[in-house]
């Protein structure tokens, strides 16, 4: 939920900057595209994609510096595995690297397409990318600093209880923890390494 709020705030910043800077879009095709009356800098598409990239890249690192949710031994195992050298649980790191690579390619493709299709100039896309990275890092840091409190508040609130919200900040193995909770509720005994 906090990530979605960050994306919305990022879009508000992009639109505000467009109206403050009032830089026109490239004139080559603006009449054909119907974009001559709108402003082009920064590219909000590039800013959004690079915001997501920076935020997603920063969160595992920030979780190391802020409290890890240790309500479950499995969660602590995941935390130990993620930050241990020579860990057997290389899968999480490899998966995160693959996800990061895919997100980086998608962000680059969006930025490139905005220039190629002449919706923006290169400097408008670059400004959007830089602002997206900066705001993504700032938002991830704010999320990390406030997550334990906000997660507890959301899950303890009556609406949060009705919606069965849980504070999963710092839970590096969310699927394993959920499986453990379901097995415990059903009366199954979870065998370590299962």
UniProtKB/TrEMBL annotation:
List the InterPro entries.
Answer: PAP2/HPO, PAP2/HPO_sf
Q: Where is the Phosphatidic acid phosphatase type 2/haloperoxidase domain?
A: 3-143
Write one Gene Ontology MF term: sphingosine-1-phosphate phosphatase activity
Source organism, top-level taxon: Eukaryota
Tell me the keywords, alphabetical order.
Answer: Membrane, Transmembrane, Transmembrane helix
Transmembrane spans = 94-117, 129-154
In Swiss-Prot or TrEMBL terms, this protein is called: Phosphatidic acid phosphatase type 2/haloperoxidase domain-containing protein
Q: Which organism is it from?
A: Chlamydomonas eustigma
């Amino acid at each position: 939920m906090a990530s979605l709020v960050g994306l919305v705030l990022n879009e508000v910043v992009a639109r505000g900057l467009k109206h403050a800077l009032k830089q026109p879009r490239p004139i080559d095709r603006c009449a054909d595209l119907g974009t001559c009356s709108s402003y082009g800098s920064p590219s909000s598409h590039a800013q959004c994609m690079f915001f997501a990239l920076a935020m997603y890249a920063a969160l595992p690192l920030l979780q190391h510096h802020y409290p890890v949710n240790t309500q479950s031994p499995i969660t602590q195992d995941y935390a130990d595995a993620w930050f241990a050298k020579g860990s057997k649980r290389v899968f999480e790191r490899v998966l995160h690297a693959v996800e990061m690579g895919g997100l980086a390619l998608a962000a680059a493709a969006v930025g490139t397409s905005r220039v190629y299709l002449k919706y923006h100039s290169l400097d408008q896309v670059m400004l959007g990318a830089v602002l997206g990275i900066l705001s993504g890092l700032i938002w991830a840091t704010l999320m990390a600093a406030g997550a334990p409190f906000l997660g507890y508040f959301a899950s303890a609130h009556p609406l949060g209880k009705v919606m069965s919200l849980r504070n999963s900040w710092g839970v590096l193995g969310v699927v394993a923890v959920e499986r453990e909770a379901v097995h415990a509720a059903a009366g199954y005994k979870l065998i370590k390494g299962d």
